[in-house]
Design brief:
The protein is α/β, with parallel strands linked by helices and about 280 residues long. It folds into two domains: about 30-115, Rossmann fold, CATH 3.40.50; about 140-265, 3-Layer(aba) Sandwich (Rossmann fold), CATH 3.40.50. About 40% of the residues lie in helices and about 15% in strands. The protein has helices at about 5-25, 45-60, 75-85, 105-110, 125-130, 140-150, 170-180, 195-200, 245-250, 265-280, and strands at about 5, 35-40, 60-70, 90-95, 160-165, 185-190, 205, 225-230, 230-235, 240, 255. Strand 2, helix 2 (about 45-60) and strand 3 (about 60-70) form a beta-alpha-beta unit. Helix 2 crosses helix 10, helix 6 (about 140-150) packs across helix 7 (about 170-180) and helix 6 crosses helix 10 (about 265-280). The model has no long low-confidence stretch (mean pLDDT about 95).
Length: about 280
């Protein structure tokens, strides 16, 4: 049976370290503060906001909410973005996406300062990740994958890593983060030929394709470490969520695997709060 790459364990370790950092900042009169900007009230947005708010409360980070109605104009949102950009007491911003279709997300991505962008959604943050300049912050979900590997002392240097998925939220940034740690990285997608065979060649597998239980035992072999980023409703009307990987099959083959739920999710909100603390220190 595979080692469980338990995100709750990782999150607990991160929270303990963050509490100590925040105590040091508060002793200097600095209260790390996250601004959460939301347009509308989509269930996914509300769930992420709730999780982020709870993690902030757990470690002592303050939260300011900027909630706009679904019908808010692009100009209204730009005013809020300008407000958080110039507010020295708001150290970082979580801009919940996707935005409503009537708002040009490219305009908003340019407007938010990379230094305030805690989830790596702006063009400036993405450019900083690509160039390795340190400007901005990596997307939290992508960074949480690396944090899980680091916590369980899974060295990726010189190893073959395969990333299933090429989104700008997870696939591309996690590939860049793996490259920074000296892995040899292959990004796979729906057009990749002989996909199971390609994945079997990897030592590290990051799965982020967004299709419930679509990656089964034919993709895996002994010795691999798998991080499942998928968060999907269970099929056939079952209650709860599941990952992209068929956990019961993969866990009998691989060396280690993250569960869903309880894997990447708890670490993602911790990385968001960690970014706020880093921004406050700066």
């Amino acid at each position: 049976m595979a080692q469980l790459l338990d995100g709750k364990e990782v999150a607990a370790t991160l929270k303990e370290a963050m509490v100590k950092q925040i105590e040091g900042l508060k002793a200097k009169g600095i209260v790390p503060t996250l601004g959460i900007v939301r347009v509308g009230a989509k269930p996914d947005d509300l769930s992420y906001e709730k999780g982020a708010t709870k993690t902030c409360a757990d470690v002592g980070v303050a939260v300011k909410n900027y909630a706009l109605p679904e019908t808010a104009s692009e100009g209204n949102l730009l005013k809020v973005i300008h407000e958080v950009n110039v507010d020295k007491n708001v150290h970082g911003v979580l801009l919940l996406q996707p935005l409503p279709k009537h708002i040009n997300d490219k305009v908003i991505r340019v407007a938010l300062l990379p230094a305030k962008d805690m989830d790596g959604v702006t063009d400036g943050s993405m450019a900083g990740l690509y160039s390795g300049s340190g400007a901005g912050y990596a997307p939290c979900t992508a960074e949480s994958c690396i944090q899980i590997l680091d916590h369980f002392k899974i060295d990726v240097a010189g190893k073959k890593a395969v990333v299933l998925g090429r989104s700008t939220v997870i696939g591309k940034p996690v590939a860049l983060l793996l490259l920074e740690k000296n892995a040899t990285v292959t990004i796979c997608h729906s057009k990749t030929k002989d996909l199971p065979e390609v994945v079997q060649e990897a030592d590290i597998v990051i799965v982020a394709i967004g299709r419930a239980l679509s990656v089964g035992k034919e993709y895996f072999r002994a010795g691999q470490y798998v991080v499942d980023v998928g968060v999907n409703p269970k099929p056939n009307g079952e209650k709860g969520i599941c990952g992209d990987v068929k956990f019961d099959e993969a866990s009998l083959l691989v060396a280690g695997i993250s569960p869903v739920p309880g894997g990447v999710g708890p670490v993602t909100t911790c990385m968001l709060v960690n970014h706020v603390i880093r921004a406050a220190v700066k």
